[in-house]
Structures are given as C-alpha cells and as structure tokens.
Specification:
The chain has about 90 residues and is of the alpha+beta class. The chain has one domain. It contains two helices and five strands, in the order αβββββα. A five-stranded antiparallel β-sheet has the order 1-2-3-4-5, covered by helices on one side. A hairpin with a 4-residue loop joins strand 2 and strand 3. Helix 1 packs parallel to helix 2. The mean pLDDT is about 85.
Length: about 90
C-alpha cells in the first residue's frame, strides 16, 4: 500500500498505545480514591461517584475523569488529581 496508509496505521497504533497507558494510570488512581476516601456512593451504574473525604464532598464522573468539589469552585479533569486532593 502507499506511504500515507502506512503513516496512518502507525499513527493509530501509537494513539491506541497512549490511550491504554492513560487508562491504566487512571484505573490506578481510581483504586487510590477508593482506598483514601471515607465513603463512595456510586450512582447511574457507576457513571457518577459521590466521594466523601474528611474535609469535603466531591462529585466525580469516571468516564470523563471530571470532578467538582461541592460548595466550592474547585474542579479538575483527571482521576490522579482527585486522588492527590483526597490525600491532602
């Protein structure tokens, strides 16, 4: 096949590899959230988590990685950053 086809196949391979790496890092962070949080309530078949720590309550959406602290303007887009916030 042509050079363009080879380039796109290589690009697809590296994107999938990077996506798998991010997913594994995200799943490790989710397990840290489970370990460090006081209480986790799952809603909508696991699509929305309500994470309670010692200081605050956080709404977390695992599919997108988005989280918002209730009664605050603090928010983020990554499970790792939420795990760090809960540890504090």
């Amino acid at each position: 096949m042509g050079d363009m086809g080879d380039d796109f196949r290589a690009l697809k391979y590296f994107r999938n590899k990077r996506k798998a790496q991010r997913f594994s890092e995200s799943s490790e962070a989710r397990s840290e959230i489970y370990r460090d949080a006081l209480d986790i309530e799952e809603k909508n078949d696991g699509q929305h988590w309500i994470v309670r720590s010692e200081k605050e309550t956080v709404d977390f959406w695992p599919p997108s990685g988005r989280w918002i602290v209730r009664n605050s303007k603090a928010c983020g887009y990554d499970a790792r950053s939420l795990a760090k916030r809960i540890k504090r």
